[in-house]
Amino acid sequence: MKHLRLFFALMLLVGINLNVQAGETLPIRGFCIGAPQVGEVTDFVRFIDEELAPRQVNVLVLRVDYNYQYESHPELRNEVALSKEDVKQMVEVCQKHNIRLIPQINLLGHQSWHLRLEKLLEVYPEFDETPHVQLPEKYEWPNEDGLYCKSYCPLHPEVHAVVFDLVDEICEVFEADAFHAGMDEVFYIGDEKCPRCAGRDKAELFAGEVNKIQNYLDLNDRQLWIWGDRLLDGKTTGMGMWEASMNNTHRAIDLIDKNVMICDWHYERPDKTAVYFAMKGLNVVTCPWRHPENAIAQTRDMFDFRASATPEMKPRYQGMMQTVWSSAGRFLQQYYNENDTVTNSPANCFRAMFTEIETLSSN
């Protein structure tokens, strides 16, 4: 008995997963990246065809935002943006390989970046949750205004008429049955100077926006995907203000529609919060970024969660999704650069994660 206990202790120490069921793979094997720029589409389509498909990637989330030639609101296009023909090239290759293509537009938060406004608040400044906070001439963090990225006011009576036009159009051109709304790192919500939001419960405001978007998507049988950080308590967990919430939005986890897909990102530590989301009745995908060793640990965890879960919990552990936060063009340059010596990179993380998925699926 003593030797048996020692054996199991050693297995745990070296990280061997004893619960993984042979031959099982993950429902979602995803990849998330910024939509390619004009001129990068051909190379990106080739990457889908030659790199994503052979790894059995079955979900591709493209962060589009204003990088599309919107017809419903042409004033919200980037100066140079993807055409319908560009998008259809990506749709075609994804359909060829049975890859579920999901477009993203950042809703609620991430309406500015450092010294510039994103298109929505540039064109419609009346939607700004914090118009009294001016973008600085030189951006630094931290700052007196607590400015990371601006948010739109979720209670503005006209904001959803605009953003839902974009959602409809981007989902239609991508032929998508799901939409990713971002909603991560929302620092400005329920601002005390907002004439509509002041004094309101931040968790209720956040949940209200999530549910409003999901209810709208329901009209066309589409699913909402969001990042999960605002639903975690940053103080209690010690995860802080980036990968979790320090402004009391975390209680929204009990208020949001259970059909929402949670993209649970942890980049510096492989925290096991997928269990928390699943126990709350939510489907969850774990998302690494640039540390291969973390991606391997998170992949093993996801297989382990599914193997050891109750029949009710198992379907909520949906899988893994590699995230890339550089442009598609920059990622492809790094990915195909044989002389690249950087160990901790999205390209190496991507390779490590899908190698681990293949290994655990075939054991």
UniProtKB/TrEMBL annotation:
GO biological process annotation, one example: carbohydrate metabolic process
GO MF annotations in UniProt: beta-N-acetylhexosaminidase activity
SUPFAM superfamilies named in the record: (Trans)glycosidases
Glycoside hydrolase family 20 catalytic domain boundaries: 79-288
Keyword set, alphabetical order: Hydrolase, Signal
Entry superkingdom: Bacteria
Annotated signal sequence range: 1-22
Pfam family, one: Glyco_hydro_20
InterPro entries: GH (IPR017853), Glyco_hydro_20_cat (IPR015883), HEXDC-like (IPR038901)
Family: Belongs to the glycosyl hydrolase 20 family.
Name of this chain's protein: Glycosyl hydrolase family 20, catalytic domain
Species: Sunxiuqinia elliptica
